[in-house]
Every structure is written in structure tokens, then in C-alpha cells.
């Protein structure tokens, strides 16, 4: 149990999706103008990531890996479907995002309105596909995969809400014309990344 | 009156456009600077920064993105009238994922070292927002040839930015260009390489400064 908890902390802070791997930058930059919207997107990402990671883990172990199909019949023991990995993962993620979109539209039309075009873009949020690919690369078991998905989502939520808070304050400061918007946000992200780097020396 | 207008429209359509007309040149050149996918439209930053530690993987990445982008635009544009609107995202993702799988298998077969370096990031081309964004915004509503031009412009616009970022990161972070030690070659052995640029932070800062320079040059101001 402690190991799982450590994994959550580690993937949220030390291996933060945004500051360590640059994943999910598009929505991170585009949806961080207001704290409330950023919060909604962050929560959606936590939910999608912690559900798709174990789902994709099951697919990887039971369908895609070499010999994984042997539970159907021993004839399939030599089949290696790893090349279908990207297609399967993205299909799972895209359909799952569609589901979340329908749920949010039903229960919170206000949030649906403010997230607008970025909801379908969660499907192409790199952090979600990246979560699944890293999980395979690092050879997790299913509990670890879930913990990793949840922790990564948590890190994303933390980062996007923090950036949105800074950008709300930034409205009142005088930024050079060319640096307005994306430029200053990139520099800010760099500084935030520097702060997150202090977690690296920690051992859990 | 109405027939006149109709006739005019018919004539307009029948006029064949030259292969590189003014409009088409604009489609091709616009994303390079004035409408750059990274620095103006804020798309595709995700995979852009992760591979830019060294110049060489960045070049491989750029070529892969150009390839995937052009062919996914071509295919989407050719079948655009048969794609049901409700499932278009999944159809587009399937097209992109197939092409990316091709690239990744090709790399695995012919340049395994590079495949190891790029790792999961080849797969992450699928989620490169530029590709899906251009398919959604352009290839779904335009003819194949125009879509290919648009794809070429956008992907080259993406490529030059990440190449510049990679150049500075490799130069300042490792003191080399394409693995060739520049500072030792000019006799400055004690050049202090900065670990910050190998790290993600350097990428953010270089990209921020690059965007600043580019926007100052073309006068784009974001509100």
C-alpha cells in the first residue's frame, strides 16, 4: 500500500507529466486562462487518466503482448500484436473521452460550455496516451498502473491550476507586447518547472 | 439576374487554377511565419519539446511529422465526403495512428538506436495537436491538393521551430552540434555547458524567447 502511495506522489511531483515530459502542453497552455476552467479540465484529465491506464493495461496484457492471446486457445500462443498498440490505445482513449463528454454535458452544462472545444481535445491530450505508453514501458502491474494514472493526472491538475492562478494575476502586470500570451507563459512554465525540480532529490 | 450570377459562378469554377497560384502559395507560406502552428496557434508543443535535447533525434522527428501530416491530410481529404460527422475524430485518429505505426515500425527496422532514443515519443505523434487540428480545420473541407500544401506548410513551420530549439539546447547544454564538439574545435575547452538546457526548463525558456523574437518581428500581439 505504501508503495502505491509513493508511486502516486512520485508521478505527481517528481515525474510530473508537464514539467518532466512536456506531455499535455497544448491544453495546459490553452485552457489555463481562468482557474475555474483549468480546474474542470484538470479533474477531467485525472478521471480519464486513472480509468484509461488500467483499461489499456488489460488490453496490453490480454491481447497485445506476445503470447497474450493464449487464454483463448494454445494455438494463439505465438501471435504478437504489439504493432496494434497505438491504434488500440487511442481507440480506447477516444471512446472514453466521448463518454466523459456526454456525462459532463448532461450534469454540468456550464462546465461543458466553458470547456468548449477542449473536451474533444482531451482525446489528443498527450498526457493520456503518454500515460498508457509509459505504463507499458515501465512494466507496471495493474494496481501500479492505476496509481500511476491517478498520480499523473493529479500532477497535471496541480500544474494547470497553479499556472491559471498565476496567469489571472498576470493580467494586471505590464508585459512587453511580443511576450504577451504564449511567450510569458512559456517563461513562467520554465520557472515553475525549476520549482518542481526541487522534488527530484527526494527518495521515497 | 439569378441566372447571371449562376453563370458567373460556373465560369469561376471551370477556370483551372495554376499549380502554384497566389492563393496556394499563401496556404503554403502562411504557416511558416505569420500563422505558425507553434508560436502563433499554440499547437503541438507537447511532442515538440521532449525530443529537442539533441539535434539528430529532432531531425528524425521532423521528418516523421512531415510524413504523417502530409499523408493523413491527403487521405482525410480524399475520403472527407464519406466520413460521418459524429465519428470523425475517431476516423481521423485511426488514419493518423496507422501512419504513425508505419513510421514507428520503419524506425524499429532501419534505425533501432534512434527508436530507442525517441521511445514513446514516436507514438505520441498521434496526439500532436497540429495534425488533428489541421485535419479538422482544413483537410475535412478542402480538396486533396490544397490540403497537402497546407499540411506541408504547417509541418515545416513546426519543424523549423523545433530545429532551432534543438540547435540551441544541444549547443548550450552539451556544447556540440550533431554530436560534433564545437567549442573544443575552436579551442575553448573550458566552455561551461549548462545542465539546465538539457533539462526541460531550458526548452521552455528557449521557446519562450524564440516566440518573443518572432512575434516582435512580425508584430503579432496576443490579448
Structural descriptors:
heterodimer; A: 204 residues; mainly alpha; B: 223 residues; two-stranded antiparallel ribbon
Note the topology:
The complex is a heterodimer of chains A (204) and B (223).
Chain A lengths: L1 H13 L2 H5 L3 H6 L4 H30 L20 H23 L1 H7 L2 H5 L3 H12 L4 H29 L11 H15 L8
Helix pairs in contact in A: 1-9, 4-5, 4-8, 4-9, 5-6, 8-9
Chain B lengths: L1 H13 L7 H8 L15 H6 L4 H24 L9 H23 L1 H7 L1 H4 L5 H11 L4 H31 L1 E2 L2 E2 H4 L9 H4 L1 H19 L5
Antiparallel strand pairs in B: 1-2
Helix pairs in contact in B: 2-9, 4-5, 4-8, 4-9, 5-6, 5-8, 8-9, 9-12
Structure overview:
The complex is a heterodimer of chains A (204) and B (223). Chain A has 204 residues and is mainly alpha-helical. Chain A has helices at residues 2-14, 17-21, 25-30, 35-64, 85-107, 109-115, 118-122, 126-137, 142-170, 182-196. In chain A, helix 4 runs antiparallel to helix 5 (85-107), helix 4 (35-64) packs parallel to helix 8 and helix 4 packs antiparallel against helix 9. The longest helix of chain A has 30 residues, at 35-64. Chain B has one domain (21-218). In chain B, helix 4 runs parallel beside helix 8 (129-139) and helix 8 runs antiparallel to helix 9. Chain B has helices spanning 2-14, 22-29, 45-50, 55-78, 88-110, 112-118, 120-123, 129-139, 144-174, 182-185, 195-198, 200-218, and strands at 176-177, 180-181. In chain B, strand 1 (176-177) and strand 2 (180-181) form a beta hairpin. With 223 residues, chain B is an all-alpha fold. Chain B is globular. Classes of the chains: A mainly alpha (204), B mainly alpha (223). At the A-B interface, helix 2, helix 3, helix 5, helix 8 and helix 10 of A face helix 3, helix 5 and helix 12 of B.
Amino acid at each position: 500500500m505504501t508503495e502505491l502511495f509513493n508511486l502516486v506522489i512520485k508521478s505527481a511531483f517528481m515525474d510530473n507529466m508537464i514539467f518532466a515530459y512536456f506531455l499535455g502542453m497544448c491544453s495546459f497552455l490553452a485552457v489555463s486562462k481562468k482557474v475555474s476552467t483549468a480546474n474542470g479540465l484538470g479533474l477531467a484529465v485525472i478521471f480519464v487518466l486513472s480509468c484509461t491506464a488500467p483499461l489499456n493495461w488489460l488490453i496490453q496484457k490480454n491481447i497485445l503482448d506476445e503470447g497474450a492471446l493464449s487464454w483463448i486457445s494454445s494455438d494463439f500462443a505465438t501471435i504478437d500484436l504489439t504493432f496494434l498498440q497505438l491504434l488500440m490505445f487511442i481507440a480506447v482513449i477516444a471512446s472514453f473521452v466521448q463518454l466523459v463528454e456526454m456525462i459532463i454535458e448532461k450534469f454540468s452544462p456550464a462546465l461543458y460550455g466553458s470547456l468548449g472545444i477542449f473536451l474533444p481535445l482531451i482525446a489528443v491530450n498527450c498526457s493520456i496516451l503518454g500515460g498508457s505508453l509509459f505504463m507499458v514501458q515501465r512494466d507496471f502491474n495493474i494496481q501500479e498502473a492505476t496509481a500511476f494514472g491517478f498520480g499523473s493526472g493529479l500532477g497535471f491538475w496541480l500544474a494547470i491550476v497553479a499556472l491559471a492562478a498565476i496567469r489571472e494575476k498576470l493580467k494586471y502586470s505590464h508585459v512587453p507586447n511580443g511576450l504577451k500570451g504564449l511567450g510569458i507563459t512559456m517563461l513562467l512554465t520554465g520557472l515553475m518547472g525549476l520549482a518542481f525540480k526541487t522534488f527530484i532529490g527526494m527518495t521515497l | 439576374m439569378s441566372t447571371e450570377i449562376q453563370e458567373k459562378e460556373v465560369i469561376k469554377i471551370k477556370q483551372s487554377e495554376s499549380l502554384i497560384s497566389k492563393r496556394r502559395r499563401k496556404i503554403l507560406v502562411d504557416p511558416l511565419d505569420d500563422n505558425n502552428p507553434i508560436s502563433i496557434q499554440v499547437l503541438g508543443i507537447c511532442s515538440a519539446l521532449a525530443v529537442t535535447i539533441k539535434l539528430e533525434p529532432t531531425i528524425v522527428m521532423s521528418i516523421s511529422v512531415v510524413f504523417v501530416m502530409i499523408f493523413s491530410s491527403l487521405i482525410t481529404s480524399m475520403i472527407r465526403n464519406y466520413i460521418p460527422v459524429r465519428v470523425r475524430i475517431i476516423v481521423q485518429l485511426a488514419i493518423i495512428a496507422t501512419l504513425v505505426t508505419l513510421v514507428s515500425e520503419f524506425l524499429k527496422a532501419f534505425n533501432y538506436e534512434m527508436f530507442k532514443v525517441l521511445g514513446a515519443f514516436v507514438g505520441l505523434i498521434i496526439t500532436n495537436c497540429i495534425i488533428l487540428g489541421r485535419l479538422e480545420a482544413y483537410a475535412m473541407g478542402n480538396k486533396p491538393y490544397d490540403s497537402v500544401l497546407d499540411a506541408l506548410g504547417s509541418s515545416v513551420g513546426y519543424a523549423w521551430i523545433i530545429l532551432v530549439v534543438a540547435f540551441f539546447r544541444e549547443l548550450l547544454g552539451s556544447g556540440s552540434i550533431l554530436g560534433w564538439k564545437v567549442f573544443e574545435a575552436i579551442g575553448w575547452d573550458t566552455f561551461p555547458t549548462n545542465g539546465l538546457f538539457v533539462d526541460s526548463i531550458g526548452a521552455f525558456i528557449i521557446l519562450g524567447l524564440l516566440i518573443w523574437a518572432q512575434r516582435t518581428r512580425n508584430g503579432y500581439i496576443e490579448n
